[in-house]
Amino acid sequence: MTRFRSWGLPLLGAVTALAVWWSATAVFGIRSFFLPAPPDIVEAFGRQPAYLLREAGSTVAVTVTGFGIAVVAGLLLAMTLTAWRALERATLPVLVALNSVPKVAVAPLLVVWLGFGAQPKIVLVVLICFFPVVVATMAGLTSTPAELSELSRSLSASVWQAYVKIRLPWALPQMFVGLKVGISLAVIGAVVAEINNPTGGLGAVIVLSGMSFDTPLAFAAIILLAVLSTTLFYLVVALERLMVPWARAISG
Amino acid sequence: MIALTRVSRTFPARTETVAALHEIDLTVAEGEFVAVIGRSGCGKSTLLRLIAGLLEPTSGTITVDGGPVHGPRRDVALMQQQPALLPWRTALGNVLLPVEIARLPRGEGADRARELLDAVGLAGFHHRHPYELSGGMQQRVALCRALIQQPHVLLMDEPFSALDALTREDMAAQLQALHLARPATTVFVTHSIQEAVLLADRVVVLSPRPGRVREVLAVDIPRPRSLGRSAALPAVAECVAHLHDVLAKAGDDLEP
Ligand SMILES: Nc1ncnc2c1ncn2[C@@H]1O[C@H](COP(=O)(O)OP(=O)(O)OP(=O)(O)O)[C@@H](O)[C@H]1O
Ligand SMILES: [Mg+2]
Fold it and tell me: Where, by residue number, does the polypeptide cross the bilayer (chain A) (predicted)?
């Protein structure tokens, strides 16, 4: 019964949605140019799997590189800002202002500045997922419970020991909240950049298939994107389970 | 030895300042066990924090082993009112934290940590995480962590408050045995008159708002004492009754 609940019910939902979609296209005679039926999409994928997988690989590369840079830079910035209150006061408003700029609007400018290669795409990914990582990590680093700070003081821990043994591990669960938001945004950033600058990646596939009215191909690309985004998200979740198994236990 | 001379501590509040402690005079001799009782909010935790060097007195002086207190010291151990365990460490790992921070050899520390955990009835729980332990078990892990460095001065803030009556007696007996074997200069905050009389050489009663020393009672009962056997002694009954009266006069009953 519980296995049915955890696997059967979601599966049933997915199958039902597929069935409704498929029968709608059949019953109403919707042309596949307008809304392709599931078999059209499978067929589109079957026509050029190597091409689609190569472009998916390119999207993954951009996403992961950008996300990696954003995480490293974000963690370093969060550590610096929480260690140095004056700097935090000075830079946080600037950061917030920068973050409120819609990143999508910057995409064409990045192409002007950085050309048509992978660089402007990676930079857009970094811009879009940097902020949640910084904010979540800062929240984690400043939420050390008073009794734990007192403990480290009473043990005469050095600043470094207090950081490594208490503050940083305590911040990990919140940091992962930022990473999970970040990885989802990273995929969006990569696709936006590719649509803007269609020289490669699944975003480019969608743009080009639109030009040639190949809607099933666009759908195949979109479904690949969804699979990719979900996989990356759950990889971060798996890393979280590995690194902070205690977080789920204490948050109940 | 711990010596407090006219120690006061106030905290800034929104409108006025809160006087937590007012002109406390207290000396705890080398190896002496002093219990502190008093109603909730009368400044017991503040007193321990001052001695531990975590807070500075607003006025007055505190010395530990002859030197003024400037900050926390490695030979002074504080067991806080909350267990304050690290959730990502096992019971054993938590007990070893002070050993790691003081960069002492881990192997020796681990042996001692295991002995301590066994002594407080946590054999078989060495590798459990805090969230797998009950509140009372967490408190006992925190007690082991305070004892692991064999501190010269031991400050304990209601160490047994989360335990049931029987476990409480066991722990008190353990603590007494440890103290007899290796007497640390101890300040022990408790809400239980019985526990104070059982363990202490002297009992300090604080009165609330602001916290002052209301009375200091010497407990001249031979050791080892036990709740079971000593409770019937007239001297014990007298001490308990007297402390009860003093506390009741302070305006409020003790919390259980
Ligand atoms: N950091 C602080 N800031 C402001 N006020 C404080 C602070 N710490 C303690 N106080 C105040 O000082 C008084 C004494 O607090 P303390 O924690 O020492 O009491 P306590 O005797 O340990 O009480 P309990 O038995 O409930 O633990 C209280 O009125 C409290 O509000
Ligand atoms: Mg207290």
Answer: 60-84, 96-116, 122-143, 175-195, 215-239
